[in-house]
Amino acid sequence: MIEARTWMADVLPRLQEAFGPRLRYLGLQGSYRRGEATETSDIDLVVLLDTVALDDLDVYRTIVHAMPEGRKACGFLCGVREFAAWPPHELFSFAKDTTDHFGRLEDFLPPVTREDVRYGARIGASTLLHLLTHSYLYADAEARPAILKEACKSAFFLMLVVHYLDSGRFCASKRELLAELDGVDQEIIEAGLDLSAPPADRSEKERYALLLNWCREVMRTA
Question: Where are the annotated coiled coils located (predicted)?
């Protein structure tokens, strides 16, 4: 397992050598940023260049694959003009879950309003509701437990936004968010954690109902 700060410090000069002043930003997202990474975790990078041509993708892939555990590298690569035109409702939690390692992400962000944040929450809830409904109807019985667990993990990112809308505070990690929740919200987050303890004693059907009802509530109230 990598040490994230060292890994980022090592990849930065390689990117600078390859792209020079075209490299505008480097950041880290995801479980490594939150201090929640495991041996199987991806390394979620955020990279902004002045523009991105297909050849740039080839160069970038070669650089990250040459890094220790570089096959785990993933994340976001974009040109600054495209990033400035990105739908704002997708950028609130994106920015909150990113730590700067070169440049400042806020210098490239378009304005994001509270209405954008609310809109993003409703889209996230509707997307998750569709996934759950589709899997309940059509997924094989053997596949549904894994789908439910992934749905709970997805609900974490949505719940970060919902909690922010309710409290004005964006939690930095799952553990931090969990400490501020109770009831159904807490149960959903616990079900998505990589814990040795089993989730709450609910049947598969009850877990689907729990998540579907929560999604409907977010769509109605966000």
Answer: none
